[in-house]
């Protein structure tokens, strides 16, 4: 596979509004699009679909929640409409089982008026049903790398007719250490194929991957740099580490917080936070890598339906948490990787909605927060909540809601100053 000719292929930043009817999609697919309720394509969809349906390699970058899944599924379906049945023609690699299930569910809706079938392939469940789907000749496989390799070693997958490869959430796959598995899979695929790579961020590892496996790709870049999702109101709340749970419970006394996604750094901390919330009378679920697939599905469905108000998750498990009405994201732990902040807060304010992101910042996490501000190019507003300072007792002092900041207020934020040390930041009360 020849590499991209240079490090900076021509980019496209689509801006003009159009209708899905203007895109080169068969009426069978247009019908599926209408039934989902789509009318106006997002910039990543508008910039990607016309070239992708012609078979061109694509590198698509856009922030979380901007419609990347439809941006690759629709061209895949369009190109395979007239293809023979019963052969594996497209492979979509994604980092987590939740994303695989999400893409498969979306595929079923878009392809509902076609003959094309998908098979989700992921770990945490038995291999029998997946084997039967693969041997039955599903035209589109949506898989996590590890489980797909298991099936490949057993000879259950035939890629000789493969036409299209999609790498979804490429930056997250690299963060999660999937690159060796991805390389092993790509070695077994036909070299004469279309390859599409989609990512919310474009770190050097993703650029290198695109050079190695794509041919003269078109780069569709919705944002010139990594920014947090539009519509998110950000607020940092300084608090000692030992008072974080108390502050979280205090925040949850605000009844406008109706659907809250809480991010913890580790599986153990996620379990502990969910348990503490439940003991305090807050309905809470938890998802992380050690939970079984059935447990994760139940927790996610309970959160979607509103039976559970709070879902506590780790970064890896939260990939694929596609819930339309997440009102708030709370970073219980500040992520070590600044890009993770962008992905986390992108779980709210999806589909052009509004949302709030609170970050609980202990003194030892100030440097992590500073790196996030450098990445997103702005200073996150801060507010100290009375009763949750360094010298406060461990017990909560009653309901004290933090100041609310609207998205309009956040648009007036001071830009990030690279010369300002964390200890010099302006305090906002």
Please outline what is shown here.
With 429 residues, the chain is α/β, with parallel strands linked by helices. The chain contains 16 helices and 14 strands. α6 (145-153) packs across α8 (179-187).
List the helices and strands and how they pair.
Layout: E1 11-12, H1 27-36, H2 43-52, E2 58-61, H3 68-80, E3 90-93, H4 97-110, E4 118-121, H5 128-135, E5 140-143, H6 145-153, E6 164-167, H7 170-175, H8 179-187, E7 194-199, H9 204-213, E8 218-221, E9 232-238, H10 244-251, E10 260-263, H11 267-279, E11 284-287, H12 293-305, E12 310-313, H13 315-318, E13 328-331, H14 338-345, E14 355-361, H15 366-376, H16 407-410
Parallel strand pairs: 1-8, 2-7, 2-8, 3-5, 3-6, 4-5, 6-7, 9-14, 10-12, 10-13, 11-12, 13-14
Helix pairs in contact: 2-3, 3-4, 6-8, 14-15
